[in-house]
């Protein structure tokens, strides 16, 4: 399911949010393909591994949602993390939400953190499709697929609000480059975590 980037626009003419999308489209599509190849919705055992992967990713990004400076840039950020929803999903499947702290990445640079947040918040858009797939396994917003459910305001309005916050940042070229680096690192981290959760991608 490839992301569509308007080819008429060059990277310089795009808004910051669109530039993030443009610069990470191949990273995204790589992750998308790897996740689908691992057949996360074929059976409960695969889904359990996918939840473990989501848990590692959301455990890594969760501290960023509590970061005071980032909360200043993105009002409402503190209400958005999906870590506790993933933990409840794991419990629904009878698993303990344990995570090896050494498997997590610490993001210190605030501009790189913006890219990580972009990756995490954007993943909610594609999650519409993933959420539908969980129905096959009889999971939903109340059991097993809480973290993939839409935000209370709906996915699109919520995403538009986050995009508007990104576009209002007015970063320097250097800061933007760090944000793009952060987003690429976030996708790379996801791929690395996927390989270690035992999901088969062949
Ligand atoms: C099988 C897994 C996935 C599928 C099928 C999928 C699919 C999609 C789709 C259809 C979109 C909307 C694209 C568009 O508007 O052109 C999207 C957006 C996005 N997804 Fe995924 N996605 C998946 C996994 C992920 C993961 C694991 C992450 C992050 C770790 C992620 C991050 C994003 C981001 C950041 C966007 C926003 C792009 C933008 O508009 O700037 N996706 N995804």
From TrEMBL:
Q: Which InterPro entries match?
A: Haem_Oase-like, Haem_Oase-like_multi-hlx
An annotated Gene Ontology molecular function: heme oxygenase (decyclizing) activity
Which one GO biological process term can you cite for this protein? heme oxidation
UniProt name for this protein? Biliverdin-producing heme oxygenase
């Amino acid at each position: 399911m490839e992301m569509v980037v308007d080819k008429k626009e060059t990277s310089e003419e795009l808004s910051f949010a669109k530039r993030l999308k443009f610069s990470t489209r191949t990273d995204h599509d790589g992750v998308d393909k790897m996740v689908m190849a691992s057949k996360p919705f074929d059976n409960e055992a695969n889904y359990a591994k996918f939840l473990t992967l989501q848990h590692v990713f959301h455990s890594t990004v969760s501290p960023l949602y509590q970061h005071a400076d980032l909360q200043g840039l993105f009002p409402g950020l503190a209400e958005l993390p999906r870590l506790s929803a993933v933990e409840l999903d794991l419990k629904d499947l009878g698993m303990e939400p344990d995570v090896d702290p050494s498997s997590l990445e610490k993001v210190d640079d605030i501009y790189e953190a913006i890219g990580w947040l972009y990756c995490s918040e954007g993943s909610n858009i594609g999650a519409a499709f993933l959420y539908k797939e969980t129905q096959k396994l009889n999971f939903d917003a109340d059991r097993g697929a809480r973290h993939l459910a839409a935000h209370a305001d709906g996915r699109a309005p919520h995403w538009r609000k986050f995009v508007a916050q990104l576009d209002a940042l007015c970063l320097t070229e250097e800061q933007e480059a760090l944000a793009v680096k952060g987003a690429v690192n976030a996708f790379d981290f996801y791929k690395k975590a996927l390989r270690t959760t035992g999901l088969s991608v062949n």
